[in-house]
Amino acid sequence: MRFHKYHALGNDYIVLNPADFPAWGGAPTTDQIRVVCHRNFGVGSDGILWGPLPSRESQHGLRIFNPDGSEAEKSGNGLRIFSRFLWDQKLVRDARFTVETPGGHVRSEIREGGGLITVAMGSVSFDSARIPVNVVGPAREVLNEKVAVLDRDFTYCAATIGNPHCVIPLPAVTPELALRYGPHLETHPLFPRKTNVQFLQVIDRKNIRIEIWERGAGYTLASGSSSSASAAVAHRLGLVDRDVTVHMPGGTIGIEIGDGFSIMMTGTVNKVAEGLMHPELFAVKV
Fold first, then answer.
1. Helix (H, G, I), strand (E, B) or coil at 270
2. Residues 233, 274: one domain?
3. What is the CATH number of the domain that holds 231?
4. Each residue of 187-224: pLDDT tens digit?
5. pTM score, whole prediction
6. Residues 182, 152 share a domain
7. Which residues pair with residue 269 across a beta bridge?
8. DSSP of 208-233, one letter per residue?
9. What is the pLDDT of residues 44-64, one digit of tens each?
10. Which of 10, 14, 205, 209 is most deeply buried (CB count within 10 A of its CB)?
11. For residues 132 and 194, what is the distance between their CA atoms, to the nearest angstrom?
């Protein structure tokens, strides 16, 4: 049972190729996902990338699983890692190729021998029906609306780039904000499919800082889709230009915002390890 582990700015994923797991007869179960991702009982990661899979429109398909066993529609860091995996394994020969996720099709470009990867993430929408958000009244762009969480009232914006995001602009952001309020915003009744949460600080016209609580994973050092959504929100509010560097605890990602809030995301990927999982790993239920 071979695994491949990579990280993108400290956001780490394990790639499992279905061809290496014929006995599983399909995607991993929730119990299998939880134990593989567990930091003490398993290999340890922020999620599992299950692929390559067949795709009718793209060259390869991908499913993305969170450590709690839930499935994500899209992950920017996960897509960069999966793209690097495909390149490393010579499953693609051209440096430009396409990948299908449940959140849509993306285009990847391998740069610097795989150390740097650009992904055309698709377009950001702020529409309440598409995200979705349970707004009162007609469907609309969810910008600068109010939400009460624990002891605070926040002004938030909502967005989707194939997965839902709640972006909260503030004068300053800290990890403590994400740790305290992130879990409650993730599961807030406003968000019927739960949501990723970003606390956003605008540094200047070309730089923003975010702290991230990721749906199904918790506090996260970096996130590609969170960077995409946060940069798009900041631009939609008129606070930044089209080229934005997103600063996170794990490092930086470059975001280019095109027409219709299309997103080009560029960031690093590092290979960590590859090896074999022993069957005894799955004797423990976590």
1. strand
2. no
3. 3.10.310.10
4. 999 999 999 999 999 999 999 999 999 999 999 999 99
5. 0.94
6. yes
7. none
8. EEEEEEETTTEEES--HHHHHHHHHH
9. 999 999 999 999 999 999 999
10. 14
11. 9
